[in-house]
Amino acid sequence: MSRFYRDKKIIILFLLPAVLLYLLFEVIPVIMSIYFSFNEWPGIQSVPLQFVGLKNYIKLFQSPIFLKSLSNIAIYVIVSVLLQVPIGFALGFIIHSFEKGKRFFKAAFFIPMILSVTAVALLWNFIFFPTEKGILNSLLIRIGLDELTNQWLVNPKTSLLSVISVSTWTSVGYYMLICLAGLASIPESVIEAGELDGVTGLKKIWYMYIPMLWDPIKISVVMVITGVLKIFDTVYILTPSGGTKNSTIVPALLMYNESYRYSNYGTGSAIATIIFLLSVFVSLFSLRLLNQRKSIDY
Amino acid sequence: MKKNHIGKTIGYILFISLAIINLYPLIFSIFCSFKSNLEIFKSFTALPQQFRYQNYITAWNVGRIGRYFLNTIILAASTIIVTAFVGALASYILSKFTVKAKSTIHFFFISGLMIPIQAVLIPLSYIFGKLGIMNNYPMLVLLYSAFCLPMTILILTGFMKSIPSELEEATVMDGANAFQVFTKVILPLTMPGIISVSIFNFIQVWNNLLFPLIFISDKNKGTISMGLLAFFGEYSTDYSASMAGICLTTIPIIIAYVLFQEKIEDGLISGAIKG
Question: Do residues A166 and A160 touch, judged by C-beta distance below 8 A?
Fold first, then answer.
């Protein structure tokens, strides 16, 4: 049998398709993208690449739009972590405590996640519609808060938060499920023992559940961060050009606009490379964080 | 005790309201899909005065939602088949065989999870442009598969490690070669894992907007995401038909989800739990 498991021909033959796919469509393009970022290219096949060294990067870090996209993505990450994980886990806790209707509640909060992002963003356009016809505005008028009505996606003060709330709506269901899966894996005897000791209510959540759910919480935080870093669709559909005064510009959208709208493929590649490095850095950093402390054993 | 009971009922009612509010954007789209444009502009939130199913006919014929839906299904289905097959082959080696530098190869694949799709767009446009292969489905399927591979290998290797080797041994004793062991023993036993990860992959392709946006220019080959988007641009005054379009694309997905709720939920979080 050990000879069977050592057959070099089989090993190579079985690994080859995956290695080829992965090399051709991921690894080589990523390396090319890094190379492209040191060049200028207008996107026309007959025009050759022109080497410009670090020019694209220098230009980027002097460009207010790019710096704005970095600060926006930082806000996007922080707000998303603070909203999506706590809301998702709170929903999970509430649903876990119910005896009936779990399936319905799970579905109600999870369905936004499986819808096409395009459909979601188009629907939210109506909610944030800038006139008094808009769903959110008309609701505010109806309950007498006229002064709060706003051009949600147009006003640079509210546009980023509006876009973030759409991605929160689609994502909380996911973290709710992760919380529920974590809760299901805690043996009941542990909870009963705690209850016998008189731990109840919020204390029970804070001192018993949170430490035992530490791993799912960390995984969720990492997933929110890595997911947000590459966010494109929602922002692109809600605010195609990146909002008034670039209020919603994010690196991925800027990269798309630079390359496919303005044909600055070199600059676009530099942004792509920065997104890639950021993603690798955050992933490796969070991987270390994840391995550092495990959930409390029971 | 009684007080507790009342509290619980109130809790239920509050939470049910919250759930319904959460689904409001969908309810809204269903209402609007039956309204005329005039009705929509009078008030977004009012109920439709009559059921105008004409909007659906417009969405289907003029907006060609059916076409886009079919295109996306073809792309997604091909991708999950290719990914499952290629991924399972590699996972079988990585989980059972004795290979030098196995953990390095494993890490090599898993690190693909860190690659955002933006990082490959420009070089791929460059290459695809050079080779003149825009609007090419097989190429797009391979591209999607490459991006689905890391998660697939992560989940399937974990799954295959837990399969006991006795069955394989018995099959080898009967004179089967590695490929037969793979198709007759490993694939059937790994099916639950393959289904989970395929659901995950399906959603990735279904939701993707960037790849088709850049690599498909032929309208006949567009996907749902592009279709809905184009629909809003071209017929921007026809909100009712576009709402019908949204409903046509979301309702089948919701029905599929309600039918296979547990399976889909497991599939989507399996990555997070394993990772």
Answer: no
- Please provide the distance, in angstroms rounded to a whole number, between the alpha carbons at the two ends of chain A: 39
Q: Do A25 and B146 touch (CB under 8 A)?
A: yes
Mutate to test the interface with B, among A1, A10, A238 (most CBs of B within 10 A): A10
Q: How many CB atoms lie within 10 A of CB A206?
A: 11
Domains and CATH numbers, chain B: 2-56 (no CATH), 65-234 (1.10.3720.10)
Instruction: Choose the closest CB to B122 out of A26, A216, A259.
Output: A259
Q: Which residues of A touch B215 (CB under 8 A)?
A: none
How far apart are the CA of B100 and the nearest CA of chain A, in angstroms? 10
Q: Classify residue A88: in a domain, yes or no.
A: yes
Query: Measured between beta carbons, which residues in chain B are less than 8 angstroms from residue A94?
Result: 11, 15
DSSP state of A59: H
How many domains are contained in chain A? 1
Counting residues of chain B whose pLDDT is more than 70, the rounded percentage is 95
Of B109, B246, B268, the CB nearest to A123: B246
- The pLDDT confidence band at residue A209, using thresholds 50, 70 and 90, is confident
Determine whether the interchain pair B25/A260 forms a contact, defined as Cβ–Cβ distance below 8 Å.
Answer: no
The Cβ-side half-sphere exposure at B14, using a 13 Å CA radius, reads 10
Give dist(CA A47, CA B34) in Å, integer: 51
CB contacts < 8 A, A to B, total 251
B109-146 burial: b if 16+ Cβ within 10 Å, else e: bbbbbbbbbbbbbbbbbbbbeeeeebbbeebbbbbbbb
The pLDDT tens digits of the residues spanning A110-153 come to 999 888 888 898 899 889 988 888 888 888 988 888 878 889 99
Residue in B114, B101, B64 with CA at minimum distance from that of residue B222: B64
Residue A92 lies in a domain: yes
Helix, coil or strand: residue A249: coil
Structural domain including A215 reads: 46-292
Q: What interface predicted TM-score (ipTM) does this complex get? A: 0.88
Q: Which residue from B minimizes the CA distance to A174? A: B269
Residue A137 belongs to a domain with what CATH number?
1.10.3720.10
Chain A positions in Cβ-Cβ contact with residue B269 (cut-off 8 Å)? 174, 177-178, 181
Query: Which positions ≥6 away from B10 have C-beta within 8 Å?
Result: none
Q: Name every residue whose Cβ is closer than 8 Å to that of residue A163 and which is 6 or more positions away in sequence.
A: A153, A234, A235, A238, A239, A248
Phi then psi for residue A132, to 5 deg, are -70, -10
pLDDT over threshold 50, residue A31: yes
| A297 pLDDT more than 60 | no
What pTM did the predictor assign? 0.90
Q: Which of B11, B45, B257 sits opposite A138 (nearest CB)?
A: B45
**In-domain check, residue A186:** yes
Query: Does residue A277 form part of some domain?
Result: yes
